[in-house]
Amino acid sequence: MxxxxxxxxxxxxAALLALxxxxxxxxxxxxxxxxxxxxxxxxxxxxxRGPAYRFLSGSNDDVRRMRAEADAAALDVRDHxxxxxxxxxxxxxxxxxxxxxxxxxxPQPRICLFDYESxxxxxxxxxxxxxxxxxxxxxxxxxxxxxVLVEGTDWVRHRRVVNPAFAMDKLKMMTVTMISxxxxxxxxxxxxxxxxxxxxxxxxxxxxxxELTAEVISRTAFGNSYKEGKExxxxxxxxxxxxxxxxLNLKLPGFKYLxxxxxxxxxxxxxxxxMTLMEIIQPRLALKxxxxxxxxxGLMLEACFTTEQGERRDELTLTMDEIxxxxxxxxxxxxxxxxxxxxxxMFLLSVHPExxxxxxxxxxxxxxxANPTADMLSxxxxxxxxxxxxLRLYGPIMTMIRKPxxxxxxxxxxxxxxxxxxxxxxxxxxxxxxxxxxxxxFDPLRFANGITNAARTPQxxxxxxxxxxxxxxxxxxxxxxxxxxxxxxxxxxxxxxxxYVHAPTDLITLQPKFGLPIVLRPLDASC
Length: 527
Prior knowledge:
The protein is of the alpha+beta class. 54% of the residues lie in helices and 10% in strands. The strands form four sheets. Strands 1-2-8-5-3 form a five-stranded mixed sheet. The protein has a three-stranded antiparallel sheet with strand order 4-12-9. Strands 6-7 form a two-stranded antiparallel ribbon. It starts with a helix and ends in a 5-residue tail after the last strand.
């Protein structure tokens, strides 16, 4: 019997060897040699060139090197053209190869677009021809496969559930929470100023805004469970740090399943986020029939149990894992984008005191010295213009990437299936043919007649994206930013600290590398 069982072993070994050879052929030869050469040749035939493909790493080593070289540069505070610091590789390749050009994220081809018409065709496509690209595993663990990342019928299902939570009438009710959280920051700054004989105090606002927006999203998303929400956010920030450390590293197949130190840490953090969110969500589900709360989670759960006709359903529209992913998505995105929007708005108003004064006059005219209401905030037209101009110059997201699900024609280009299409937002936002000769300058007046008429191309502002997949939380972010800036302007004038170093940096989102130290001066002498 033993001898009989041993006989097939050479056959088993041969079969395993054949499988290994087939895998090696597909992975090493097809994916990392033949396919990149075929794709490069197809684009070269269309006149599209770019940096040469390198086995396994693609263009990643060049990106890492050029970013490291550019990182030492500091800019003048009035120089808003930070592209040579943040995206030096894109500028260098555009100058060398023209636009568009082809480059490589590992073995994955990416074509970088620079014309708004092609970008519009990609982002406004409603037929499902363009999908989001595969996401780094750690970013997926941090952000969740929520509305931002799901596709097709899943996106439709998720959108129907999430959309009611971000209706403007619901958001207006959350203004009270935004104002209350901001009021605590204002009082803290007033106390710091009162303890200084000169009445003037220096405050590191990028950190304060991170803490403030964490408090706001925790309370508006999870109500009485806001402390657990802040714990989730802290864990997501740890996952973000882990993702930044490994983003350009070589990715071998199956590597994400190996128990390496970084993978074990990722699994631990991911599980912590999941378990904490489940502890928040499950007690809400037990409230079935008596309402789930008026925060973002409660509104989303209510929609989960409601049909499109407004009737009650017995089963959730989304699974528990999908609800958890949606919580991850709106929680992290809602905090990260608003925090940096506030930081860069504060920076720009410090550099341009004439606009700081204009906004203060508008706030005092519409709101007086009382805490603003949602209706008051809706009347702050110049504030809206400044926030939109901040999104144009210092938007939190540097690029958007899509890939066609089949071979497709985009303008005069034939793009093979699976090719990443990169949309470099800050470069497009500085296109002088679209935004005018002063595209690199801070000029909120360009938005005096709204977003549609701000540039020569309609809807050229990409800060919240455009088309059917535009950011569902943009009204939340704008309302929170208006609330915070209005209350600061009511109480303080401010300038940049001499310690500030203008060095924008891309850490998934655009941030000031050395923070934002601001000198505050209370407007009320009694402070």
